[in-house]
Amino acid sequence: MFKLLSLSFILFTLNVSAHPVIYRDGIVVSSFNMDNMNDQQLMYSVTEKFAAGLNSLRFSHDKKDTDLVFAKLNHLAYRYNGHDSQANIYLHSGIGLSDHRAKSQGAFMYGAEADWETRTLFLGLKHFQYYSPHQFDMPVTMARIGFSPFTASFDSLQSWFMIQAMHAPLADKTVSLTPMLRFFYKNVLWEMGASAKGGWMLNLMVHY
Amino acid sequence: MKFIFAVLLVSMSSFSFAESIKVTVNGMVCSMCAQGIEKKFKKIDAVKDIKVDLDNKIVILETKDKQDIEDAVITKMITESGYNVSSIKRGANE
Ligand SMILES: [Cu+2]
Predict the structure, then answer these.
(1) Residues of A in contact with B51 (CB under 8 A)
(2) Which residues does B76 contact at the CB level (< 8 Å), separation at least 6?
(3) Predicted local distance difference test score (pLDDT) of residue A146
(4) Distance CA A62, CA B1 (A)
(5) Rounded CA gap, A164 and A178, in Å?
(6) How many domains does chain B contain in total?
(7) B58 lies in a domain?
(8) Which residues of chain A have a CB within 8 Å of the CB of B28?
(9) Which pLDDT belongs to residue B5?
(10) By the 8 A CB rule, do B23 and B91 touch?
(11) Could you tell me the CATH number of the domain that includes residue A194?
């Protein structure tokens, strides 16, 4: 057990949030919901490189739920600020508890995330691992590609069309493809989508 | 008509007394993340108004009573928002 605990401090995790670390002193509240998955986060950016907070997740598969709750540390490991583009690499780590098949015990998460964006194009890739000893060791892999049909000014509504591919075996053994719409206005972001299999998606994120 | 013109002239001239600082920022592509820049500068007393222009990648700061804001402070605010300063230019607002 101790070995696993120390391992979790060395490894890092990745979460589902689009903005794992924001400006110094900023707070991110996000709620990511699909028909078979929920991810709620509250993260505080201590600096522009590190954010700490809480994350709770639920994966549902065949009416059986796996619940997870983590204390998290996110790190912006690399940032590229270009004239017309931006790229980021984030590392994530988490330590907490899992409730899987009526058994509660310790759990960890770790992973990495990369994105590249211009004002009209977005590419994102995330891979994270959720681990509960003797229970499960499950990946969540997510890729997103998006484009914005027009560039909106700073104070106006931004609209994006995106396609998300996700593989999360705790919720679904196969890859789900979800075309979606992303909107954001000032410090509020919301997304809605529907997968090819008929699943739904509804996300909300606020920066303070 | 004359009155409107006079009001316009007065309001424009009062604007020209404000110091204007033009900061060119790299990496400013997403308006949601750039909210942090606005939030940070609004906390500075000397800042009367801030405009974020994503098309030209500039942040324009209007200061109260021709006050100046040091380059180091501007750079700190931009860096803490996650971006890089590429240049800082000063001049009366025209
Ligand atoms: Cu953003």
Answers:
(1) 154
(2) none
(3) 95
(4) 73
(5) 5
(6) 1
(7) yes
(8) 86
(9) 58
(10) no
(11) 2.40.160
Give a yes or no: residue B12 inside a domain.
Answer: no
What distance in angstroms lies between residue B79's CA and the mean position of ligand 1's atoms?
15
pTM of the model: 0.84
Q: Which residue has the higher pLDDT, B67 or A17?
A: B67
3-state secondary structure A157-171: CEEEEEEEEEEECCC
Contacts of B77 in chain A (CB under 8 A): none
pLDDT at A12: 34
pLDDT tens for B16-35 read 456 899 999 999 999 999 99
Minimum-distance CB partner of A83 among B32, B34, B57: B57
Indicate which CATH number applies to the domain containing B28.
Answer: 3.30.70.100
Beta bridge partners of A45: A51
Distance between CA atoms of A14 and A140, rounded to whole angstroms?
9
| Residue B47 domain-assigned (yes or no) | yes
Q: How long is chain A?
A: 208
A203 φ, ψ to 5°? Answer: -125, 150
The answer to whether A189 contacts chain B (CB < 8 Å) is yes
Compute the distance between CA of residue A36 and CA of residue A59 in angstroms, rounded to an integer: 6
Contact A58, A69 (CB under 8 A): no
Instruction: Give the residue among A33, A164, A79, A126 at the shortest CA–CA distance from B33.
Output: A79
Report CA-CA distances (Å) from A140 to A59, A162, A172, B78: 11, 19, 10, 34
Domain of B61?
18-90
**Is residue A126 helix, strand or coil?**
strand
Residue A179 domain boundaries: 2-207
Residue B3 DSSP class: H
| Predicted pLDDT at B1 | 58
Residues of chain A with pLDDT under 70: 1-17
Of A23, A24, A83, the CB nearest to B26: A83
Show which of residues 77-96 on chain A sit within 8 Å of chain B, judged by CB atoms.
79-86
pLDDT of the residue at A196: 84
A190 interface with B at CB cutoff 8 Å: no
